[in-house]
Amino acid sequence: MRGLIRRWRTVFGFLLLFLLWEVGVHVFGVREYILPPPSQVVRALVKNWQPVAASAGITALEIVAGYALAIAVSIPLAVGIAFSRAMEETVYPVVVFLQIVPKIAVAPLFIIWFGFGFTPKLLLVFLLSFFPIVIASIAGFRAIDPEIMDFVQTTGACGLRAFAKVRLPYALPEIFTGLKVGAAISATAAVVAEFVASDRGLGYLLLQYNGDLNTQMVFATVMVLGAIGLAVYFAVELLERLAIPWHASQIDRQDEPGLV
Amino acid sequence: MSAAPAAIIARGLAKSFQRRTVTTTALASIDLSVAQGEFVAIVGPSGCGKSTLLRLIAGLLRPSAGEVATNGHAVTRPVTDIGIVFQNPVLLDWRTVLDNVLVQIELRGLRIADYREQAVALLRAVGLGEFLASLPRELSGGMRQRTSIVRALIHDPPLLIMDEPFGALDALTREQMRIDLEALWLRTRKTVLFVTHSIDEAVLLADRVVVMSPRPGRIEQIIDVDLPRPRGIEARQAAVFVETAQRITQIFLARGILHQSRGL
Fold it and tell me: Do the chains contact at A145 and B88, CB–CB below 8 Å?
């Protein structure tokens, strides 16, 4: 019952936002090319759904592929850095340094290297979502209670068994934090890559609409982008709920006394 | 008839830690011998190296000097035929009470099916029969520590090492745990090395109390406790208990670890 109420409150919050926007635009007489009311944005999107949907497919693919690549590389790398002194001393400082470099700055370089196609977008998404996952995963592997490792040592368990049964599950909550940050960044990365140079995708479409002063469609495209980002984020959160149902972050707040 | 080897023999065992240019001697030359089936408590103030001593015996630390053997084997790496309990229960949050006990078996690569029954029986014996499927966060501190103790016993090790196991519990839970631990020990008769900073707890539990003093950590005295078992609540009134606790207090007073009222 309380869950239902909470969900309705969330929906209500969004409805209120759109209502204020709609009313505000009319009351203050804001021009349409500056800020169109949400009703018009939705109408424009429904009318022009075809080019938007085609571009959305391309951008979504860039996001998902780049993000998947980032996960596939970053977690093994984090394992290496967390468990090998040699890797910690050689690779980790490089990772930390690269993390500080504003990676968006290399986007134009990717055009020179990889052209205008799919590859530079994939790589920029990879590059931007990679670091939060690596950093969080390393932190997760390191956060283990040393006394748990003392206990594990007295069992004589081999490294692999200790990793599978203790170290990895222990690090999962932190890893998921990194995965969620990475997911949020990946949509931004894809759009920026498309801004720099492309002939398709939502970023490209956004620039076209902007050039035409078609503010309605700019807003419509941003909404679709937001929806894609949200979908990736919720996919990760669903996975998290399945993987670490025992963690404090996943415990249903329904069990707690509500703040009245 | 050859006598069984001593459970623990330490000779000249010492440990110092080096940090930058400063060397701290945590433990200076310890000689200690513990017989099979004996319950030995180590009592001393913080920083007297009693935890360091436990970790040296368990092979979790390497000594700077001296040597130690458990059950006749020189300790050169982590000892695996022991059970270990810390001040924090360090359970795995994602496992139920029963699975937290059985992780001991899994990590050793033994057959879980062979130990499940025993795990349930032990958990029942410590009053956790109703909580086999509970997660650690659903338990009280005392229940978590009981789980941790059962985890340390499930593989039937000859030696149990406990590092201030009741230190994080409230006084009432602590007293109950003390009584239950003694009952468990009377049933199994394992060798127990029990570190505490509570004089009462040491005297009420142990056959012998090792009194330590700090900077550097060393053994001041080893005191036999001649109290009949089981030592229930009433043992606190026994003349032997009062006398022994008083003797240990006197040692700490003499070493300046405890002070009489300073007239504040």
Answer: yes
Helical (H) or strand (E) element with B218: strand B218-224
Cβ separation B88–A147 shorter than 8 A: yes
Q: What is the pLDDT of residue A100?
A: 87
Written as one string, the DSSP assignment of A124-142 is: HHHHHHHHHHHHHHHHHHH
Q: Compute CA B136 distance to the chain's CA centroid, rounded to the nearest angstrom.
A: 22
Q: What 3-state DSSP class applies to B215? A: coil
Contacts of B78 in chain A (CB under 8 A): 153-154, 156
B210, B212, B218, B223 alpha-carbon torsion, rounded to 10°: -30
Question: What is the residue extent of each domain of chain B?
Answer: 36-61+79-254
Q: For B75-91, give the DSSP string.
A: -SS--SSEEEE-SS---
Cross-chain Cβ contact A170/B92 below 8 Å = yes
User: Could you report the per-residue pLDDT of A189-208, keeping only the tens digit for each?
Assistant: 999 999 988 888 999 999 99
Chain A nearest-CA residue for B104? A155
Q: Name the interface residues of B facing A (CB cutoff 8 Å).
A: 55, 58, 60, 78-80, 82-84, 86, 88, 90, 92-94, 103-104, 106-109, 135, 137
- Strands B208-213 vs B39-43: parallel, antiparallel or unpaired: parallel
Inter-chain residue contact A150 with B107, CB threshold 8 Å: no
The Cα–Cα gap between A240 and A242 comes to 5
Q: Within a 10 A sphere around the Cβ of B30, how many other Cβ atoms?
A: 24
For residues A201 and A190, the answer to whether their CB atoms sit within 8 Å is yes
User: Given this model, what pLDDT does residue B257 score?
Assistant: 80
Sheet bearing B73-74, strands edge to edge: B22-34, B8-19, B65-70, B73-74
Residue B194: which of B250, B186, B203 has the closest Cα? B203
What separation in angstroms does the CA of A194 have from each of A31, A99, A114, A118, A207? 29, 22, 13, 10, 9
- Determine the topology of domain B36-61+79-254 in CATH: Rossmann fold (3.40.50)
Instruction: Name the band, by pLDDT with cuts 50, 70 and 90, for residue A115.
Output: confident
Q: How confident is the model at residue A260 (pLDDT cuts 50, 70, 90)?
A: very low
What residues of chain B lie within 8 A of the CB of A150, using their CB? 55, 58, 60, 84, 86
Q: Is B84–A244 a contact, with Cβ atoms under 8 angstroms apart?
A: no
Q: What is the pTM of this model?
A: 0.83
Flag whether the ipTM exceeds 0.85: yes
Beta-carbon separation of B107 and A161 below 8 A: yes
Summarised one tens digit per residue, pLDDT across range A155-197 is: 998 888 999 999 999 999 999 999 999 998 999 899 999 998 8
Residues of chain B with pLDDT under 50: 1
